[in-house]
Write a structure and sequence with these properties.
- This protein is an alpha/beta fold and about 400 residues long.
- It folds into two domains: about 5-175 and about 335-405, Alpha/Beta hydrolase fold, catalytic domain (Rossmann fold); about 180-325, no CATH class.
- Helix content is about 35%, strand content about 15%.
- The protein has helices spanning about 10-20, 85-90, 120-130, 150-160, 180-185, 195-210, 210-225, 230-250, 265-275, 280-300, 335-345, 390-405; strands at about 5, 10, 25-30, 35-45, 55-65, 70-75, 95-100, 140-145, 165-170, 350-355, 370-375.
- The strands form two sheets. The protein has a nine-stranded mixed beta sheet with strand order 3-4-5-7-6-8-9-10-11, with helices on both faces. Strands 1-2 form a two-stranded antiparallel sheet.
- About 40% of the residues are buried.
- One of its GO terms (molecular function) is dipeptidyl-peptidase activity.
- Pfam families: Peptidase_S37 (PF05576).
Length: about 400
């Protein structure tokens, strides 16, 4: 269908230019069911309360199918990529992916960390909704996001419930502190005891083999041009601490945990689960904005470490504050999270997707009101999607979504 302004047909690009002043538009090759696709940079205020703080360009990806079709708005928690999400594919809808501020191409120039707040991020989303609602008149706006993007989806639903008809967050952790102990409790109880013990035994073995493993990590860092400003020994210890969380997060197989492994086998397995690149400077730089939010508003997890204390030499503080910005205020402020949780108990048409094994499930907000659903995939991890469920359960989920749409 062609949209009209003052009785005359007008192209989608022309509408975007007219309604979103100051935008930068890059037309992309259309994929999947979309007829047109665009990368769009939209001017946003760094601080929505203070115009003097300046502006930045926030990136969105628009996949256009039809002006009257539903709009799936993807609330990212990090950088955005031009991909088609399963809900948009299933509904043959339009899709709007919003990159999170301070990531990718959406980074303010010389902006202070204090402006990276959930309040500002939700106002970013609301403004984008208002602008694109001038183009798309459908009442079927569906918000969705994955992981930190799932948390963003829930926050957005709490802050601006009238912007969307349906919220479908995947994972969407709502942690209680920068070291939410519910994650620890999950790691100490999930799966069978033999599997958990095998993981702990392997962690201890790696630390016992540290002197043999460190040269292998040093060689890898040189081959892959990875820089570890923290030092390779600290990187190794962090990867050991992270192992149990990553193992269950992505539902790895218990029978693959090495027993009596050589230093080389230990090194290879640890790399396959924790990934040493996560502790390289480039990765830390990329994730620093999210760790600022984890430490100040969103909460996060700590490390289960008691069985390793006598073997760790580099790490004595068992949280993730090391990865947050230095020389800035990291005071934890739970007010936004508390208000969001309270508001969400009264919201309707919220459908959450979660994996049973994922430690983040321990921090999931299990809403139990009318038109609130929480689907957990048994044996599933962080990558669970609607398509991961058995056919009967998939049909149940989609029937709920269809029933909510006008």
């Amino acid at each position: 269908m062609v949209n009209f302004l003052k009785g005359q047909p007008i192209s989608l690009k022309a509408q975007i230019d007219k309604i979103l002043p100051g935008v930068e538009i890059n037309k992309l090759n259309a994929s999947d069911h979309f007829l047109e696709e665009y990368e769009i940079l939209i001017p946003q205020m760094v601080d929505h309360k203070d115009p003097k703080a300046g502006t930045f360009m926030q990136r969105v990806f628009l996949g256009h199918f039809d002006y009257e079709s539903p709009i799936v708005m993807v609330t990212e928690g990090y950088s955005a990529n031009d991909v088609t999400y399963e809900i948009a594919k299933k509904l043959r809808s339009n899709q709007l992916i919003v990159e999170y501020r301070y990531f990718g191409k959406s980074v303010p120039e010389d902006a202070e960390w204090k402006y990276l707040t959930n309040e500002n991020a939700m106002k970013d989303l609301h403004r984008i909704h208002v602008l694109f609602s001038k183009i798309y008149k459908s009442k079927n706006w569906i918000t969705t996001g994955i992981s930190k993007g799932g948390t963003t989806c829930l926050f957005y639903e709490a802050a601006y419930p009238k912007d969307s008809r349906i919220a479908i967050p995947y994972v969407g952790p709502m942690a209680d502190s920068p070291t939410d102990v519910r994650c620890d409790e999950h790691l100490k109880s999930i799966g069978d005891s033999g599997c958990r013990q095998a993981l702990m035994d392997f962690q201890e073995r790696v630390l016992d083999q540290k002197e043999e493993i460190l040269p292998k990590l040093d060689s890898m860092s040189k081959q892959r041009d990875m820089v570890f400003s923290m030092g390779i020994e600290k990187a190794l210890e962090y990867s050991v601490l992270e192992l149990s969380f990553s193992f269950w997060q992505y539902a790895h197989q218990c029978d693959k945990i090495p027993t009596n492994s050589t230093p080389n086998q230990s090194f290879q397995y640890l790399e396959s689960i924790s990934g040493f690149a996560f502790y390289a400077d480039a990765t830390i730089d990329y994730f620093r904005p999210s760790f600022y939010q984890f430490m100040t508003e969103n909460g996060y997890y700590g490390f289960v470490h008691e069985h390793l204390d006598d073997k760790l030499t580099e790490i004595k503080q068992f949280n993730n504050q090391y990865f947050a910005p230095r020389n800035t205020d990291l005071t934890y402020r739970p007010e936004f999270m508390i208000k969001a949780k309270k508001k969400l108990t009264k919201r309707k048409r919220v459908l959450q997707i979660q994996g049973e094994l994922d430690p983040w499930s321990a921090c999931g907000l299990k809403l139990e009101g009318k038109d609130q659903f929480y689907f957990v995939k048994q044996g599933g991890g962080h990558s669970v999607r609607i398509a991961s469920f058995e056919k009967e359960k998939q049909d149940e989920i989609w029937n709920i979504i269809y029933s909510w749409m006008k």
